[in-house]
Design brief:
Helix 1 packs parallel to helix 4 and helix 3 packs antiparallel against helix 4. The longest helix has 21 residues. Helix content is about 50%, strand content about 5%. By secondary structure, it is mostly helical.
């Protein structure tokens, strides 16, 4: 199936292709000679892809235990999940959409595109634009100096919350358009 150029499937496909085209072999200078070959791929990215696929499969199988075998191509997993949850109740479909969007954000951040995917989101607390990605915290940080938690620290937001807010906002917009 055709996927939008900036979707979770497209981002996952990009990560997978990048992993194969640009293997991470580690530093070449100052290395001790070894009898075994170094790993020609980024194990972190491979692990990320595997965890993403497993999460989508687990959610889909929970909603539809009779779902046929998952596809072997990682980027086809989202179409497979939508096909096998299309008759599930609205809550299951919304949860699947949140998982897919959160993974889209994760894939883009892993590829170094956090500005493109985090900045357009509004802070769920103060609704201002100005979120920045904090890699060490694995959270988005609100840059509004007045948006602080009870301890006086800048508000931080998980990708799961950003995804939930985004999907809920799209759902509200669809409801408004139909009335």
């Amino acid at each position: 199936m055709n996927q939008p150029e900036d979707s979770a499937a497209a981002r996952l496909r990009h990560l997978n292709e990048y992993l194969l085209e640009h293997p991470v072999t580690g530093p070449t200078e100052g290395r001790n000679p070894t009898r075994t070959l170094s790993t020609p791929i980024s194990l972190g990215t491979l692990s990320h892809i595997d965890a993403s696929v497993r999460e989508v499969i687990a959610h889909t199988r929970k909603a539809n235990p009779a779902a046929r075998q998952a596809p072997s191509r990682a980027d086809a997993i989202y179409d497979w999940a939508r096909q096998h949850t299309e008759h599930a109740d609205e809550e299951v479909q919304q949860r699947a959409a949140v998982i897919e969007y959160r993974q889209y954000l994760e894939h883009a951040i892993r590829a170094g595109d956090w500005r493109k995917v985090i900045r357009p989101h509004r802070c769920p607390e103060c609704r201002c634009l100005g979120l920045m990605w904090q890699a060490g915290m694995q959270r988005a940080l609100c840059t509004n100096t007045e948006c602080v938690d009870p301890d006086g620290m800048s508000t931080t937001v998980t990708l799961a919350r950003l995804a939930q807010e985004h999907i809920a906002g799209r759902k509200k917009l669809r409801q408004v358009r139909t009335t």
